[in-house]
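Human: My hope is that you can spare some time for a protein that puzzles me. I am handing you a single protein, as its sequence and its fold in token form. Could you go through the record with me and say what the backbone is doing? Take your time, and here it is.
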Amino acid sequence: MKGNGKEPETAKEIILETYSLDVEGMKIDVQISRRPTLYVPLYSIKIPGLAEGTRLILDTQIRGELVGEVNIDIAEMLDAQKSKYVRDQFFSKTSRVLLRHFPNLSPDNLKVLSAYLMQYTLGLGDLEPFLHDENLEEIVVNSARQPIWVYNKKHGWCITNIILKEEKSIQDYAAAIGRRVGRQINLLNPLMDARLMTGDRVNATLFPISTMGNTITIRKFARNPWTPPLFIQSNTISVDVMALLWLGIQNEMSILVSGGTGSGKTSFLNALSNLFPPNQRIISIEDTREIYLPSFLQWVPLSTRLPNPEGKGEVRMLDLLVNSLRMRPDRIIVGEVRRRREAEILFEAMHTGHSVLATLHADNAEQTISRLTNPPIDIPPIVINALDLIVVQYRNRRTGIRRTFEVAEIDDRGRQKVIYRWNPRTDKLEKIEELSALADRIALYTGMTTKEINADIAEKSMLLNHMVKNNCVDIEKVGRVVAEYYNNKDALIEAVEDGRSIDDIIR
């Protein structure tokens, strides 16, 4: 890549992981390693078979020729279908131009060079490989003084071998992102929040607001969303606690997922949403699209919109919340509760019979109630009893592990009681108290006895264990198993008890 640093000192480093990426048809090798001279893992990327001299010709001569020959309309690039057409046309034109300059190019090399030109003309150049790596959660450019950093799901923060050597390059990338979504970033407007077509969220700042240089922070949208079996596989939550939450979802309980930054609140919210019955209408409301549900569900995702440069056209979370109540929702998902008016409408929705899932920044169940009932949210404590459960997510920044820290129920007086709490010594969720308020509410609306509630949790645990055992973690497959449970439970349980595969069950 253009910004490559020194090649790894292979004799002194420990290879942690290697894999390849496909970026517009171009193979890019990734190596993650540890060096004695670095305190964090090194994330190295390399394009096989692309020499520095070839890059120079592509960048200085052929790219300019292509820009003159290919008419690129920004509006078309914003449309998913038209964007594919533009890319196909560009690829075709690129191949002809390359063959004009290099008539003896092999088909494989032609594909690599065309993909490179696509990446640096229609894509985001040096940032493009990181955007294609599904193992990354964050991509961070801090300045031209240091390499790009990435947050890898397995290895945590890694320093890369790519450096954007000029501050202007960082500003150009930020401006290119802004143009695609109708946003501006310049000296008069040095801060920018934007969303890529892929759903990735971008924040950019310019010097001197960021005193060390221009910055870009990209939070990637999960291409493979988290599901309940994935959380169980990763030991984030125990199977019996997930089964309890499923029981709550089935009985239309309202759940608030809280936790610190990066603790996995939205991912857990997404996993819980996989457990909705297929015969209900779901409305999700987010600042940035992160929720992703099975395709067969009746789901309407809504997202906020920032104002244009003239200050017009803004759509706030509050606007969407009010509007969602007019859309006859059975379930409402809210990405994050931040303000009093939003919380008031949310709890009003709970009191009027809507099942609500939402997230909030708080470190434990007690703090969650405190945040809700004190400024700036400051809703009356009397309305808290509309909430049924609080699930607290935790992330250990030193080790990178994520765990469900607490599960608490809310009684009729709006008080929280912790049912499960994570023990860091045993790395297990341990039962602190028996169910009471939640069990009473389920019994009130279903007539289930305590024995029947426990049997139902055991049944759901068996099904979740079967999905984990069969590595059924894909969102579509998990969704179909859950739908089968609601529509044809006896046959599904019989199939699971017989040990049949998931593919056979949902065929």
